[in-house]
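quick one, two chains, predict together pls
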Amino acid sequence: MLDDTSRAILRHLQADPSIGTPDLAERLRLSPSTVTRRIERMREDGHIKGRKVLIDWVALGYALHVSLRIRLDKTNPRAFDDFLTAARDIPEVLEIQTFLGRVDVRLSVIARNLADYQQIYRRRILALPHIDDIESLMTVSTVQDRRALPL
Amino acid sequence: MNVFDETDRAILLALSKDADQTTAQLGRKLGLSQPATWRRIRALKEAGIIAGEALILDAAALGFGVTVFLGVKLSTKSRVSLEDFERAVTAIPEVQTVEHVLGLYDYRLRVIARDLADFERVLRRRIMTLPGVGDVEANVLLSEERRPGPL
């Protein structure tokens, strides 16, 4: 487990991933070499896997975001594998999650507009194998999107 | 920005996987000069297509083993109740994302916890006590895959 110093560094990095080491060191009242060493250590240990940019799909013209909650026909032993393999081929699918609960799989799908969504839904989603039932939730607004950990 | 072209697509795809690479490294891969790469990234940021950066952490290695998605229905609906709910729910550190949705539920929450006992604590003490909270459905995340999207 991480100690308080490393956790504090992670907290600041999570809040501002592009912060420079000198700024980070100053905020935490640590020496820059300590901060560098700690970050390197957390990367080596696999706690920090890297950095990525976040894409705003709305700015790219994808105004709709739909969450499809799917129940699969589990009498077929290949239901999950077949379904997941086919879902990966749909470009508009951003996330594929599997669950324990009332829902088996959730697909996060984006579309340019309702007409575009209808095309994707009819031609691609409904063609996916082993679907028992689908429920859709359309995102009205994202109140908060913070994938940060409560460190 | 000018038209979003194939090179911009390639830049976004590369940076959405790894934002640690330098513009020179990225440019070499795409056959672009470092200044040209930098100008394109700046344009993508100015257009809001690159919305920010995020640290990629290994949640399990940091002690967070359980992610649960909650579908929440409010028992009373008014402008004030939505605002109260949103204000209170975004103050819970374990709640990572909050989406206002249209469909079976009013809100969709992504909650992270150390283990199931920790999740139960969050659910009972923080979620069930939120103002206006009605029905809550929980689905425990088993696996998650992020796809590159239509790039």
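Strands of chain B lie at 50-57, 66-74, 95-102, 107-113, 133-146.
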